[in-house]
Structures are given as C-alpha cells and as structure tokens.
Design goal:
alpha/beta; binds NADP nicotinamide-adenine-dinucleotide phosphate; 7-stranded parallel β-sheet; 7 helices; about 230 residues; Rossmann fold; about 20% strand
C-alpha cells in the first residue's frame, strides 16, 4: 500500500496533515515527531489504528533518521514525504548566538536534506513536499527577528529546485509550499495577537490534494500560499 511520511506530526499543521491524509486517502500514514506519544492524534483517530503508525524520533539526529529508515522499510516504499517539521526562532539578529542558529538550520535545512538522502532508496514515484515559508521567498515582505528562520526557509526553497534538477530523470517529484499564516503555536509565537488567514485543517486539506495531483503538472516549484502576510 502507498505510504505517506509526515514529519513534525505532534501538533499544528503536521497533526492536521496526518488527520487529513487518513480521512481523504487510503494511504498508510507514518506520523513522525519527537513527542513520545502523539496523544491528541491517537484520541482523534482511534478508528484508523491499522493505517496509522506513530514514530517517535528526532529527525535532526542521525540515530533518529536511522531508526526512522528501519521503521519505514517495514512499509516497503514511500509515496509521499512531507518535510513539515520546523523550528522557529524569534530574536533580534544581533542577539542570536551560534548554537541557536545551528539548531534552526539543523531542523529546517539539514534534517530535510539528510532525511531525503536516507529515505531515497525507499522512494517509489515519490512526491517530496517541503513546507517552507513565504518569508523565505525572494522579494516577499520581511519581518524583524526572523533572520535565522526566514533565511533557513530560503535555503529549503533552493534545495527543492536543486533536487528537481538533480533527479529530473527519476520518477520522483519535488515541490515546495511557502506558507503565509496558519493558526498554530508557531504562528502565535511569531505574531502574538494576530489572526492567521488559515486554519491548520484548511491548509492540510489543500496540501493533501496538492500531494496527490501536483506531480501530474509541476516539478521543482516553490508555490506561495498566502491570503495575507502575516
Ligand atoms: N504556522 C504558520 O503560520 C507557518 C507559516 C509558514 C511556514 N510554516 C511552516 O509549517 C510547518 C509546520 O509549522 P506549525 O506552524 O505547525 O508549527 P508548530 O505548531 O510549532 O509544530 C512544529 C512541529 O515540528 C516538530 N519538530 C520540531 N523540531 C523537531 C525535531 N528536531 N525533530 C522532529 N520534529 C520536530 C514539532 O514536533 P515535536 O516538538 O514533537 O518534535 C512540531 O510537531 C513548519 O515547517 C513551519 O516552519 C508555518
């Protein structure tokens, strides 16, 4: 059976994506997160135990990625991989230290880079989707205190185009969705008191359809998805 892997599945958009893939497709869903137990998910999705597997690993560490590879292998092949896990740092540029900068890049850039390398042998006509930010798109409106975060998302955008070029003769598709605002914990930390333009469920529904349909019409694209910014 087709398998979809979703990182950052413990809350926010990742949690909504797991739910939407279970409700709208017949795919096996691997929900990946550092959280020991994705309790909200388990409670909400009790009726799908046979198609839902929760994997508790830290994808920013090589042992986490190795453990994940072993789990994914049990399912055979990966049809869809959503690099959704992301870390935010909201801090003035001059106050960001090296450790904080490295952590943001480890989660937002190195993890999708290295996880794609690791899982590549298990891809079968795979669609890999990077969840990025409109803030990482050239020429978009920028905000102070997001230099580490937004520049890491710009790197992720470019990585999408690099994969599409390097694997253009493969059956795999690489695309990137550069989100505007979605009402999650991360958004509330970055823009307290502001209402986001989309709910996690609305965005997740869009992404499921995109995951299934986009490979027929596009490859290596960075698509801005925003009604307002922020
Ligand atoms: N919300 C927005 O408005 C918005 C806008 C643009 C882009 N995005 C992007 O959308 C994605 C989802 O964001 P969100 O708003 O849903 O954020 P969120 O509520 O903060 O959730 C982030 C997820 O990433 C996971 N994560 C972080 N570090 C991890 C690690 N080292 N290993 C494994 N998982 C890790 C977290 O799980 P654990 O802590 O359990 O590991 C969590 O499930 C992110 O890539 C974000 O940058 C969001």
């Amino acid at each position: 059976m087709n398998t979809v892997c979703i990182t950052g599945a413990s809350r926010g958009l990742g949690l909504a994506l797991v739910e939407a893939f279970l409700l709208k497709t017949e795919y096996n869903v691997l929900a990946i997160s550092r959280a020991k137990e994705i309790s909200a998910l388990r409670v909400r999705l009790d009726e799908y135990p046979e198609r839902l597997t929760c994997v508790s690993v830290d994808i920013s560490k090589s042992e986490g990625r190795n453990k994940l590879f072993d789990e994914v292998k049990e399912f055979g092949k990966v049809s869809i991989l959503v690099h959704n896990a992301g870390a935010l740092l909201y801090k003035p540029f001059l106050e960001i230290d090296e450790i904080e900068l490295e952590e943001i890049y480890r989660v937002n850039v190195f993890s999708p880079f290295l996880l794609t390398q690791k899982l590549f042998p298990l891809f079968e006509n795979a669609h890999v989707i990077n969840i990025s930010s409109i803030g990482g798109v050239e020429g978009s409106l920028k905000f102070p205190c997001l230099s580490a975060y937004s520049s890491s998302k710009a790197a992720l955008n470019c990585l999408t185009e690099m994969w599409a070029e390097e694997f253009k003769s493969s059956p795999h598709t690489f695309n990137c969705l550069a989100l505007g605002s979605v009402q999650t914990e991360m958004f509330e930390r970055a823009f307290p008191g502001i209402d986001a333009s989309s709910s996690p469920e609305e965005m997740a529904n869009y992404i499921v359809n995109f995951a299934l349909d986009a490979p027929k019409v596009m490859r290596g694209k960075i698509i801005p998805l925003s009604k307002q910014n922020p």
